[in-house]
What does this fold into?
Amino acid sequence: MVPIPMRNPFNTTSKGIGEVIADSYKKGAREVYLGVGGSATVDFGIGAVHALGVGVYDMGGRKFPPAAILKGGDIKDISDIEYGMDLFPGLRLKILTDVDNPLLGPNGAAYVYGKQKGARDEDLPVLESYMAKLAQMFHKKSKGRIRLEELPKMGAAGAIGAGLSCFLPCKFYNGIKLVAELSGLEEVIKSSDIVITGEGAFDTQTLEGKTVSHVIKTGQKYGKRIIVICGVDRVPKEVTRKLGIEVYDLRTRFDPEACFTRTGDCINSIVCNEIKPTLI
It folds into this structure.
């Protein structure tokens, strides 16, 4: 949702997520499902954590005021974070993610996802150092109990789950598997004649556990015709042929402006003019 020229992980925050969690609790929720992925942030969830009421201190020992908006770039100025607070008694947070990326390293929050959030090559080691700084801080404060760098899924959505898990009872789930179970997706696919799914960029990441991958596998299980409609297709043709799926991308059919500003019309055109005639 953030325009490409405005993307900058040093200037974005997860504060809104913290506000939503706090408001949900205030209104009576004791079980909160949080889907993480596709964020514009690499802030370790510090914006959300601060919004939940956790005290965060700058390098001068001053506490950031409650109204402050802590962003990814502010991590360099953090000297301490309050720990051991019982923020929301009885609250259970279920975090849904379709990736297993760790917090740190070549497959972590910074190096895998930083560039799509606006980071330059030279920014990646800086963001990595910020993630490591906070991971080490919580490791020390928990007397070694918290070892975020060793856990899967902590690198998703700018490491927001890593930060939240230090303060709230969290359990991580494979997002699409849980959503499919809750929604009865398999039965819907089983009883359908054709399966149409979609993704912005259909690439190798799509096929590694994301929603579209699960839909494709479920459709294959029941021998369904499977169609993927996407913004851009980056999967080699031999791979899609092997999977037995059809891919229709917007980028080769419409001009860039139409793809972004009239996406629905573009998809409707593909369905009516290209897919529907094959069903007759």
